[in-house]
Structure formats: structure tokens, C-alpha cells
Amino acid sequence: MTETVRRAHARGITTLTLDSPRHRNALSAALVAGLADALDRCGADPAVRAVVLTHTGGTFSAGADLRDPPPPQALVALLRRIVELDKPVVARVAGHVRAGGLGLLAACDIAAASTAATFAFTEVRIGVAPAVISLPLLPRTDPRALARYYLTGEHFDAAEAARIGLVTAAGDDVDQVLAPVLDGLRRASPQGLAETKRLLTARVLETFDRDADVLTALSARLFSSAQAREGMTAFLERRDPTWAL
């Protein structure tokens, strides 16, 4: 559909593939716009029963593209579009996920991961915070675990991601994990899926309504700060930032 998002359809399931492996599927302005457009098309297509969101390469998403970042408002709109879509969105993760990519997982209704995947909230290491992505994360993920991983930027594995509610299930073969999920979605009625999803996402959308403006402003302020400039420069230059001990 775009240079960064590919679409395929089979038996009621539309698969949207993040296809920017050279940039580790980082959330550039172009990728965010392309994915939003693809989701809109899925929402308008009665042949689509559910959406699978997956990726090429060894990384599901590396988070915000520091060379071409999307405006915070665009990322908020994308996450809300996933939550509000009246069709289930299922994440298929066969690679690593960092920072903003974890927001995509949390926005999805179901997420399955390979045991080879790793996860990390790396924002604190470049001088910012996981602000916008907290909109779907905080209502759906264990708060004590988030406190640890938000504050430290540690890597954790797929089993831990499942334990804390970031993903639904993990296994050596992610497609085997997803097979009964997709079979169940194909057997469900469109009306039943839409109304059940509304029940499940009501509290998440309340968080968007209450906190989106504040967290968008926080994200913009942090990304324009001196510490963020140093953190992003250090990341791109593959060195430690000045505050590292």
C-alpha cells in the first residue's frame, strides 16, 4: 500500500506488514501515516474480519525514528485508531520491540510474540519518557513491572512480556500461537466482534480522552530539550550520553 506498509488479505484476515527493515521499522512520519491509512482502509472494508499487524526483518519496531520522527499528535491518532477500529487488531511479533513500538503492541487487542523477541522501554536512556505510548500501556499492563522497565530501560524477554500483560501469549513458533486466535476470529460475527471490542476498550479510550493532550505536550517538550538532543545524538553516534556513569 505504501513504501513502508504492505497489505495482504486471506479468508477475512488482512495482514499489514511494517516493511522498513533497513530502519528497523522505526516509527517515521511516513510509516505512521502509511499505517494509519491502511487501518482506515481496513475499517471501511466489509471483507475484513480482523487485522494482523506484523513486520519484516528482525525488529517489529525500534520506536520513534530519530531522523524523521512523527509529530506526537500523529502517534496519538495512530494508537487511538488501532484501539477504536471496530475490528480486532492482532500483533504478530517475531522480532525485537523497543520504545514506541511497545505502544503499538499495547494498542492491539491481542498480541503474540516469538520467544526470540526482546522488549525494552529505552526512552529514559535518551532523555525522554514513554509519554504518548502510556495511553494504551498504563490501562493494560502491570504497573509495578512498568515502573521497573520504564525507569531502567532494561531488556526483557517474551515470557516476561506475557506475564506483565504486554503480550497475550508467547511461543517458539508465533504462527502456531496465533493459529487458534485467527480461527476464532474467523468464526465470530462482525457485529459480535465490534461490540465486544467496545466493551474491552472503553477504559483505554477514557485514558485517551483524559490524558492525551497532557502527554502529547510532555512528549513535545521532552523531545525539544537539551538532554534529549544529547541523548539522541549519542544514540546516533553509538556512544554513551554525557550523563552515563
TrEMBL record:
SUPFAM superfamilies with a match to the protein in the record: ClpP/crotonase (SSF52096)
GO molecular function, one term: catalytic activity
Pfam family for this entry, one: ECH_1
Superkingdom of the organism of origin: Bacteria
Gene3D superfamilies attached to this UniProt entry: 2-enoyl-CoA Hydratase, Chain A, domain 1 (3.90.226.10), Lyase 2-enoyl-coa Hydratase, Chain A, domain 2 (1.10.12.10)
InterPro entries for this protein: ClpP/crotonase-like_dom_sf (IPR029045), Enoyl-CoA_hydra/iso (IPR001753), Enoyl-CoA_hydra_C (IPR014748), Enoyl-CoA_Hydratase/Isomerase (IPR051683)
Stated family: Belongs to the enoyl-CoA hydratase/isomerase family.
PANTHER family associated with the record: ENOYL-COA HYDRATASE, POLYKETIDE BIOSYNTHESIS ENOYL-COA HYDRATASE PKSH-RELATED
Protein name (database record): Enoyl-CoA hydratase
The organism of origin for this protein: Streptomyces ruber
